[in-house]
Amino acid sequence: MKNLKGEYYNSPFSHVYVEKEVWEHPRTKRILAKLPDADVIEIDHYKDVFCRKGQDYVLQHRAQNLILGAKHGTLLYKGAPVCQSFGNQNFYYTSCMMNCIFDCEYCYLKGMYPSGNLVVFVNLEDIFKEVEKLLLKEELYLCISYDTDLPALEGLMGYVQEWLQFVEENLFSGKKRLTVEIRTKAADSHFFERHFPVPGVIYGMTLSPQIVIESYEHKTPALRQRIAWATQAMTEGYRVRLCFDPMIYCKEWKQRYSEMLEDVFSQIDMDKIEDVSVGTFRVSQDYLKKMRRQQPCSMVVQYPFINDKGVYHYPKELTKEMEQFLVDRLKERIAEKKIFLWEDEEM
Amino acid sequence: MKENIGVINMIYILTAMYAEARAIITHFHLKKDISHIHFQVFDNQEVGIRLIVAGIGAISAAVAIADTCMAAEAGDFLVNVGICAGIQEEKVSEKGNDCLAKGALLSREPNQGENERICRIGEIFLCNKIREQITGRTFYPDILYPHGLKEAQILTGAAAYTKDKKKEGFWLYDMEAAAVYQAGLYYFGPHQMSFLKVVSDYGDAEKVTAEQVRELMEGNVERIAEYVNFLQEIGRKEQSGISFLEDVLLSETEKLCRDMHCSKTMAAALRQCIRYGILSGVDIAELRKEMYREGKLPCKDKREGKLCFEEFKRRVL
Ligand code: SF4
């Protein structure tokens, strides 16, 4: 009974759960029109499906389904301590989607969410309003691809495009400055045909050695593609940040990270890079516990980490050695003030 | 401990009546397990199938599950199979179909003497939404695997369906599915529960004879068997690597814990280190033997054990 491709799982978004409230929303209609083969099931509230008891994140992710709903209550959150704010004071993030179509074994979302299904909030306009309200008072640094990878879903959702328009309109509105960060591992070369550079938007491209990508960052583009994307983005006038975070330990990590940097330095004009971030893998103990239970055979989450006040990380000496190694190599090509190390951040 | 052997996963099939079960019992060569007092249970340990005839209604279903599914594990499945009423008449809107769903692809051939129906007598459906009529609570079993069946939404009521009852937009009606889901949730996740329903009537269940039920199920037994076999294959596939890892982990942890005089905390750390070692390709048994040969194991006491663990960890990482 495998499907026509001989696979054991349904293809992504074979089922779409739609909240009654957003059934008629134009974004719902637009998204569903792109999924003509999906079974569409009406639900009262996204949590009725997303927060069910006893779900298996990993299995669900293999046949990931889509939930369309509306976000109410808090729409913007103050940045959490385990993330980098790049020196920005008013660091906020927003979740217009929950979960990701990529499947990194070390992803904290596996520990944070009860379900592997993807939730998309179609009421973007409410988030925009909330941002506008805050901008009347203060400047804002906003991460919009925080609990997801927004560009990875651009073909289906078109949310990056909508954000770009919003940020651009804001530029000329006389309000306070808005800077938006879009963290991604997606590297679709067609992206540039349909998007345009906006000064207030920074793309944070996460780079890992190819061996790490192959072993743990399932369904994500190869290092070569990510570098090519970053290169083209900068050529076309986009602001690009390189994120070497999380650095993942493997026995030959030094060699692997050196090779990666060689590829980066040979192809990317480091003078044009916005900045870089560096940090080894770290995760809260509650999340790791769940991630380990769900992925008993995953080397990356089963590493015997050190628990430091509820945060798991590699042993101190190893953390230091890995981060320092990368920072030292980066310093050869980029000004030190442009290198943001996780350790520098305040908890 | 689980009763089944090796990596054979167990599929628990729950029906309300014997007439619903007979075709499945014959197909899988299930034998009656006379050790059960309250319910008729049939199984075949070799193929990993256990069928329970629960009786009609929510309470029977819940008690039967509690009585028979206690040993369920990851990789096992609960499949509720039975007849149901087809309650929705087809409404074709101006757009052609007032549902957006592919699952709303309808059987448009009317049955003789009946209005046009969404579901025909004898058709089998996999349920993707279950509502308990009495509480209004709705449940969503995961549909993760390709199945080749039509999908539908089912309403579970406390009494047999009659035409004066509300349909609430649902196509199917039965008396157990919502209870099976809720009771099943104690032992299974939503990805481990399936609901296969064969339409037997349009709200006049009293006219359906046991013989007719048997025939309806016989007409669908191949589809049901195919579905069950596929779950069996999936369960085996998902569990195979894990059980090997857990076996090695268990035996190595036991030996090393003993010889390192581990405390509870150190045992947990050692276990984690061994797990990582196995996954990263370290031959833990060989490493242990090597440390024996070097006289580092067994340790005299806890203090020596601690140092030995540090050494062990260094070699693994
Ligand atoms: S790309 Fe990011 S959000 Fe997506 S799975 Fe990987 S780590 Fe998680």
What does this structure look like?
- The complex is a heterodimer of chains A (347) and B (317).
- Chain A has one domain: pyruvate-formate lyase- activating enzyme.
- Chain A contains 14 helices and 18 strands.
- Chain A has helices at residues 26-33, 46-50, 57-62, 109-112, 124-135, 154-157, 159-171, 191-194, 210-216, 223-235, 253-267, 285-294, 299-302, 316-331; strands spanning 15-19, 39-43, 66-69, 77-78, 91-93, 97-98, 103-104, 118-121, 140-143, 178-184, 201-206, 217-218, 239-247, 275-280, 282-284, 306-308, 311-313, 339-341.
- The mean pLDDT of chain A is 94.
- Chain B is of the alpha/beta class.
- Chain B has 2 domains: 11-236, Rossmann fold; 241-316, no CATH class.
- Chain B is 38% helix and 18% strand.
- Chain B has helices at 18-27, 58-68, 177-184, 210-218, 221-260, 264-279, 284-293, 302-316; strands spanning 11-15, 31-32, 40-44, 49-53, 77-86, 124-132, 138-139, 150-156, 172-174, 193-201.
- In chain B, strands 5-9-8-6-10 form a 5-stranded mixed barrel.
- In chain B, helix 1 (18-27) runs parallel beside helix 4 (210-218).
- The radius of gyration of chain B is 26 Å and the shape is elongated.
- The model of chain B is unreliable at 1-5 and 92-114 (pLDDT under 50).
- The chains are: A alpha/beta (347), B alpha/beta (317).
- Bound molecules: iron/sulfur cluster.
- Iron/sulfur cluster binds at residues 100, 102-104, 107, 109, 148-149, 185 of chain A.
- Residues 100, 102-104, 107, 109, 148-149, 185 of chain A line the site of iron/sulfur cluster.
